[in-house]
Design a protein that fits this description.
about 425 residues, 4-stranded antiparallel sheet, 10 strands
């Protein structure tokens, strides 16, 4: 298997993916732009170390990122060379392990994505399974049991050199404030290898749920089980928690896990309506709060940013956001967001004009009669109120912002829905 890992085709594919994903530097400070040159200069040494099992991975660089609901999540950023090797390993493991994974597992798998998981959840609701057991694993990536994981890998990987290399990555350590801390458990989240390892660990859970003939959907460590009655929900939650904690040696977060109606919970940023025959996919409240907070940040009138740059940042952020949430069946939210964004931009532009005489001149240039322009230009109403005034609505309409380069969420939603 090391031959497959070190084959030219596998290595070139791995290198291209690491370069395409970009990402931050590791503990050695090397950037993705330098990796190709470094490999060309040092490949004979690196290959020899890998073949002999003498290669020693560098510790990962710990990064804290804020969670949407508060707190922080730890990421372990490997060096770019380790990301390259991990990607090569992942490409060898995927054809071996992916075919054995459950059909209800959707996270980090070829030709599968979160949208498929959400559609499957809706189908269970249509079939009458309208109570969800939402299982949340506490610090899953930090609690993976190394020996159990290596035993699962050894069942299908006969190459001891490859197994030894994977264990080295699991135990490579984490650098915090210049000091390396050993890792005796967990699979640091942030490298190309951790997603497939997490699926291998949680495949045991999938097989157990299938054995019990339960309707479930799992995306990485987000697992929702759908049942018909509250009594069934209580029983399933209790027994599945026991299995996870006693057999898999993982921890269920009791505060975040719950038994509830699907429309009262969120799954991968989405939620559902309560309709029995055709439940609609909606954006969850938390996701809406998050996107509005980001838009407020970009369109803050306190930031002295040129309008061209604001619009560029909005387009960059909202294009990807709309692409993900185009799955929803309630398009009104995109129209409302478009209107709200335009109002915020009008507010920014109105403040940018500052002096009354500038406002009068600008309004006149947009075709407003001088008397009206003078009246509104000297208004003492606040920015947010003026941004919703008829005078700015008429002058800074949809066509105005389109000419400025602002892309409509509603138009993009329609385009994406027509594509599917």
């Amino acid at each position: 298997m090391m031959e497959s890992l070190l084959s030219q085709e596998n290595l070139i594919t791995a290198l291209k993916r690491v370069e395409a994903n970009k990402g931050s530097h590791g503990v050695d400070g090397m950037s993705v732009k330098e990796i190709r040159t470094h490999i060309l200069q040092n490949w004979h040494i690196l290959r020899e170390q890998l073949e002999k099992g003498a290669y020693e991975p560098s510790p990962v660089r710990r990064v804290e990122i804020p969670k949407p609901n508060g707190g922080t999540r730890f990421l372990g950023i490997p060096t770019v060379i380790d990301r390259f090797i991990q990607q090569a390993i992942t490409q060898v493991l995927t054809p071996i392990f992916d075919p054995m994974f459950s059909e209800q597992s959707y996270g980090f798998r070829p030709k599968r994505r979160g949208h498929d998981a959400v559609r499957k959840a809706r189908r269970f609701m249509q079939e009458g399974y309208r109570i969800v057991v939402d299982i949340d694993l506490e610090k899953f990536f930090d609690r993976v049991h190394h020996d159990r994981l290596m035993a699962k890998l050894a069942e299908r990987i006969p190459d001891k050199t490859l197994l030894k290399l994977i264990r080295k990555y699991l135990q490579s350590g984490v650098m915090v404030n210049g000091l390396v801390k050993p890792t005796t458990e967990g699979a640091p989240q942030g490298g190309p290898l951790s997603p497939i390892l997490s699926n291998i660990v949680l495949d045991e859970l999938d097989k157990e749920l299938e054995k019990r003939n339960l309707r479930f959907v799992r995306y990485a460590d987000d697992c929702n089980i759908y049942v018909k009655t509250w009594k069934s929900g209580l029983r399933v939650k209790r027994s599945v928690t026991e299995f996870i904690e006693n057999k898999l040696k993982l921890k269920v977060n009791q505060e975040k896990s719950a038994i509830d109606r699907p429309w009262k919970r969120k799954f991968l940023g989405f939620t559902f309506s309560w309709d029995k025959k055709n439940p609609k996919v909606r954006i969850s409240k938390v996701s809406m709060q998050r996107v509005k907070a980001k838009i407020r940040e970009i369109t803050s009138r306190r930031s002295p940013v040129a309008m061209e740059m604001r619009i560029k940042k909005l387009n960059q952020y909202l294009t990807g956001w709309c692409g993900y949430y185009a799955l929803i069946d309630t398009p009104t939210i995109f129209r409302e967001l478009d209107e709200w964004i335009r109002r915020r931009l009008r507010m920014c532009l109105w403040k940018q004009w500052k002096k009354p005489k500038t406002k009068v001149r600008k309004l006149t240039g947009l075709g407003i009669p001088r008397e009206k322009a003078y009246e509104w230009g000297n208004s003492r109403k606040k920015y947010w109120r003026i941004a919703c005034s008829p005078i700015l609505h008429r002058t800074m309409n949809n066509k105005f912002w389109s000419n400025q380069g602002l892309r409509s969420l509603m138009d993009r939603y329609k385009y994406l829905r027509n594509m599917t």
